[in-house]
């Protein structure tokens, strides 16, 4: 007889541990499904055999067959034993290859990358310090997300969270992005708002080179990228809008960066900051639906990157209360915090710089 989870009493802690172990395995299956294109392939096929699915995806049949077994027992894909065919249910397809994909896919794909840091992290536990950015050289390459849906979400769902921001961009504004990484978001904005000019800053030359290459590929003339430590930005009254996406909590000097952002904005300008939706108080995060996952990110990536630069080590769970404190210290007195019931990941801070320092 095949053992069933129902045979383990619900109040037996073994049941919880078994579920954790199975969930960890399923994350690997899902990550592989994204990176190989198997989920989109399944979504576009009628019920098919493993050979048909492998051929459509251009993959090895034996590996595809074993992966299909994994996702079938995980409840992600349906299996018909009589015809030995597999099908992705429409409801599952909506989650795995639909509008939610850009957010969720990146997180599933990140799990193997984060777990790969464990040996180095163990040394940090013993000796302190942190990991350098070089420890995550292939991070962006490993975590690939379908940009088509993600681009639409940025333009149609995220930016409109800031009142009047889209109109301002359509009319024409000087826009900066701190910690722009490979620059894809800024290139998307530059293409969508040709009347505005965009400048992205990141201190990793490799990322900036990729950002520039994509801008050239897209034929953009209203965007530029600069290798720059944003804690030493040194600009005053240059931008109408500055954006920062999930960046501040990674930085060695978050307070210095926020002060530099405030100085670089023109009076009346907007700093649009997206960051992890959490509390600064542990007791309030105990019921967080994604609490363990965000702490995993913090431990294996965000916090250790900051500590690796002798930084503050905020971590991804720095929370709304501390974010508001830091923004106030930087000079932002007018801060609107927005959350969305459907968005379990992000919190949006719309920060307006006073029009004149004397208040007139």
Could you give a short account of the major beta sheet? Answer: 7 strands, mixed
Distance between the termini: 79 Å
Number of helices: 16
> Strand arrangement, largest sheet?
5-4-3-6-7-9-8
What's the name of the CATH homologous superfamily of the largest domain? Vaccinia Virus protein VP39
Task: Indicate the CATH class of the largest domain.
Answer: Alpha Beta
Q: Which bin fits the share of residues in helices?
A: 40-55%
Order of helices and strands: HHHHEEHHHHHHEHEHEEHEHHHEE
CATH architecture of the largest domain: 3-Layer(aba) Sandwich
- Poorly predicted ranges: none
CATH topology of the largest domain: Rossmann fold
What Rg is obtained from the alpha carbons, in whole angstroms?
23 Å
Let me know the average pLDDT.
Answer: 90
Large-scale geometry: globular
Instruction: Please provide the count of β strands.
Output: 9
Count of separate structural domains: 2
Structural overview:
By secondary structure, the protein is α/β, with parallel strands linked by helices. The protein folds into two domains: 5-98, Winged helix-like DNA-binding domain superfamily/Winged helix DNA-binding domain (Arc Repressor Mutant, subunit A, Orthogonal Bundle), CATH 1.10.10.10; 105-352, Rossmann fold (3-Layer(aba) Sandwich). The chain is 48% helix and 15% strand. A hairpin with a 7-residue loop joins β8 and β9 (346-352). α1 (13-35) crosses α6. The mean pLDDT is 90.
What labels describe this entry?
360 residues, alpha/beta, Rossmann fold, 7-stranded mixed sheet, globular
């Amino acid at each position: 007889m095949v053992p069933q989870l129902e045979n383990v009493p619900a109040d037996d802690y073994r049941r919880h541990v078994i579920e954790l172990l199975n969930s960890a395995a399923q994350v690997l299956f899902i990550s592989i499904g994204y990176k190989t294109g198997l989920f989109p392939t399944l979504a576009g096929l009628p019920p098919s055999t493993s050979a048909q699915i492998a051929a459509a995806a251009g993959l090895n049949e034996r590996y595809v067959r074993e992966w299909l077994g994994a996702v079938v027992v995980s409840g992600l894909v349906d299996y018909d034993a009589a015809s030995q065919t597999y099908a992705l249910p429409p409801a599952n397809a909506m989650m795995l290859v639909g509008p939610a994909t850009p957010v969720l896919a990146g997180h599933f794909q990140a799990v193997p990358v984060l777990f790969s840091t464990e040996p180095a992290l163990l040394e940090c536990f013993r000796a302190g310090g942190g990991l350098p950015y070089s420890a995550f050289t292939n991070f962006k390459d490993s975590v690939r997300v379908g940009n088509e849906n993600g681009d639409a979400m940025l333009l149609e769902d995220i930016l409109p969270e800031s009142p009047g921001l889209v109109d301002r961009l359509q009319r024409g504004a000087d826009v900066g992005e701190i910690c722009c990484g490979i620059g894809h978001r800024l290139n998307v904005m530059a293409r969508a708002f040709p009347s505005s000019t965009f400048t992205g800053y990141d201190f990793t030359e490799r990322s900036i080179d990729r950002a520039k290459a994509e801008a050239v590929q897209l034929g953009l003339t209203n965007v530029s990228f600069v290798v720059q430590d944003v804690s030493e930005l040194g600009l005053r009254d240059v931008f109408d809008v500055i954006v920062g996406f999930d960046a501040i909590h990674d930085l060695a000097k978050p307070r210095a960066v926020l002060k530099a952002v405030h100085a670089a904005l023109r009076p009346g300008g907007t700093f649009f900051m997206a960051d992890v939706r959490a509390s600064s108080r542990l007791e309030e995060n105990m019921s967080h639906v994604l609490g363990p996952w965000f702490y995993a990110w913090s431990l294996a990536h965000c916090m250790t990157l900051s500590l690796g630069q002798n930084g503050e080590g905020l971590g991804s769970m720095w929370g709304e209360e501390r974010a508001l404190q830091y923004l106030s210290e930087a000079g932002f007195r007018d801060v609107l915090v927005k959350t969305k019931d459907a968005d379990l990941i992000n919190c949006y801070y719309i920060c307006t710089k006073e029009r004149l320092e004397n208040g007139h």
